Amino acid sequence: MELADQTQKFSTNRLMGKVAVITGGARGIGAATAKVFAENGAHIVIADILDELGTTLADSIGGRYIHCDVSNESDVELAIQLAITWKGQLDIMFNNAGISGPDGSITNLDMNQLNSLLSVNVNGIVHGIKHAARAMINGGRGGCILCMSSSAALMSGLGSHAYSMSKEAIVGLARTTACELGVYGIRVNCISPHGVPSEMLINAYRKFLKKVDMKGEEVSEIISERGSLLRGRCGRFEDVAQAALFLASDDAGFITAHNLVMDGGYTSASTSMSFIYH
Questions:
Q1: Which residue of the set 65, 163, 205, 266 is catalytic?
Q2: Residue range 250-255: average pLDDT?
Q3: Domains within the chain, CATH numbers bracketed
Q4: N or C end: fewer C-beta atoms under 10 angstroms in the chain?
Q5: Dihedral class, residue 89 (left if φ above 0, else alpha if ψ from -120 to 50, else beta)
Q6: What is the pLDDT of residues 54-101, one digit of tens each?
Q7: 173-206 pLDDT, tens digit each
Q8: What distance in Å separates the CA atoms of residue 70 and residue 122, rounded to the nearest whole number?
Q9: Residue 263 neighbours by CB under 8 Å, 6+ apart
Q10: Which residues contact 238 (CB under 8 A, 6 or more apart)?
């Protein structure tokens, strides 16, 4: 077999026979990840509240869809149970669902809105880890749990108080659960993207720039110009999906309690004085 053929074979079978549940999997990063996982041989359960989008996507990749509000523990438990009933196992749990929540001054923070955000962004992750861990421990096969965080967990000024707090909490939770679950062969990791033009980010730009008809392409152009060290390039759904694929695969078999930051270097360096290098 030619080397090119071997590479292609490897790249399309990295999750062969594995079973994954993806929350918030109906669109955006979740949908891109569902497609990449399926292309690499995984069986996918999409858990979301966007029933039409989720069902259509699940049908297109030979997966299953279930309505799931991650703030409700029983919904998450049922999504995981669907995977086990369908394929007899759970290998990958991607806790991807999240919301933006309230912004504005800390002096005016609405606590009801904060609690609503935390019920999804933090409690939803707890529900996912809790029930995925139970299933994986019972299965005795180990497993991989992924949690969606954000660059806002690393650097202030990139998200609201509420959103940033929730995303930092996710990183801490992933590390402590990785500490507990490693003995069972269960790896727990985070992914922290920056500058990916999701619906959430596009809406934030619309609000900030007071341009309600702003298109995703316009946001991508802004990010490409000043959102990373890689000029002319912004993050894409597929970039995050490929990172999730790596962490979920056996290639990352010795990686746990890690936060994979995907920000084009934005949180690591400033270009304001880059003239000194020229």
A1: 163
A2: 97
A3: 12-196+237-263 (3.40.50.720), 197-234 (no CATH)
A4: C
A5: beta
A6: 999 999 999 999 999 999 999 999 999 999 999 999 999 999 999 998
A7: 999 999 999 999 999 999 999 878 767 766 666 6
A8: 10
A9: 151, 192, 193, 194, 195, 228, 235
A10: 32, 36
